[in-house]
Amino acid sequence: MIMETLFFSLVLIALIIGSVTDLKTREVPDQLNYFLIVSGLGLRTVLSIIYSDPFVIIAGLMGFASMFALAMFLFYTGQWGGGDAKLLMGLGAMIGMELSFTTFLVSFIINLIVVGAIFGLIYSIFLAYKHKTAFIKNWKNYPVRRFERYVVLAGLFPLLVGVFIPYALPLFALLTLLIIGSYYVLIFMKVVEHVCMIKKIPISKLTEGDWIVEDVVVGGEHICGPSDLGITDKQIERLKQLKIKEITIKEGMPFVPSFLVAYIITFYTGPWFVTLISGALS
């Protein structure tokens, strides 16, 4: 019980600090992430020795390894920045992984997906309202909207089929809602990204890990671009040497608050998804 309380408290404090800094600066301090990784594996090593239980450190290593794999996938597919990826590794080391589908870490990841999606949508709505004039203008003229009638027709097809299968009509109606709804949500998110998240900043405000929108090529030399998955300090120095004044970046949304909320929900609800699946199958 003491061990669980210690790890829970450390993770909670780290996520609160990370949430505040992410909301203020859109960055997650590397020191915080490294603290979670080092202290997680370090404490588990000490506790393994004290309790003569090798599984304490094994669970930490398994948690770190599994979250490392997931974090690398999300980072290299451009879904997450480096700070969020490192934070996930640190949480893996702290929380640990047990050989069970209902383990706390698995429950946390599922909650993170749900909370992250909800938070992302709410934050995007806030940004759209904040920049409503530019958003409305871009929404009306967004290129993908020319496919609108085809998507609506495709979405209504399952509903038409459902009319002839009355007992399955609710399922087909839900499918129609998902098809049409997903289309508009996708356009909404892309317009928000274009209007609210892509901006020009002076090189002096550029920090390691920022996502560059356009390729920067000077005299045939490729300095940086979207394929870099985050600019490096070396590239920033090169831009300064070339006296480039501004650069276009894509600003990410603060995601660490989703970690915090998902962590608290997991602590109080446990593996709720198992109950949900069991109820659906029974």
How would you characterize this protein structure?
The protein has 282 residues and is mainly alpha-helical. The protein folds into 3 domains: 2-99, no CATH class; 128-196, no CATH class; 199-250, Molybdopterin biosynthesis moea protein, domain 2 (Alpha-Beta Complex). It has helices at 2-25, 30-50, 55-76, 82-95, 104-130, 132-141, 148-163, 169-197, 233-241, 256-269, 272-281; strands at 198-202, 211-212, 216-218, 221-224, 246-250. A hairpin with a 2-residue loop joins strand 3 (216-218) and strand 4 (221-224). Helix 5 crosses helix 10 (256-269) and helix 6 (132-141) crosses helix 8. The two termini are 35 Å apart.
Write the layout of secondary structure elements.
Blueprint: H1 2-25, H2 30-50, H3 55-76, H4 82-95, H5 104-130, H6 132-141, H7 148-163, H8 169-197, E1 198-202, E2 211-212, E3 216-218, E4 221-224, H9 233-241, E5 246-250, H10 256-269, H11 272-281
Antiparallel strand pairs: 1-5, 2-5, 3-4
Helix pairs in contact: 1-2, 1-10, 2-3, 2-4, 3-4, 5-6, 5-8, 5-10, 6-8, 7-8
* Rg: 23 Å
The parts where pLDDT drops under 50 for at least 5 residues are none
Q: Domains counted in the coordinates: how many?
A: 3
How many helices does DSSP assign?
Answer: 11
Report the count of strand segments.
5
Sheet with the most strands: spatial strand order: 1-5-2
Fraction of helical residues? 55-70%
- Note the main sheet: 3 strands, antiparallel
Instruction: Name the beta content range.
Output: 5-15%
* H and E string: HHHHHHHHEEEEHEHH
Mean of residue pLDDT? Answer: 86
Structural shape: flat
Distance between the termini: 35 Å
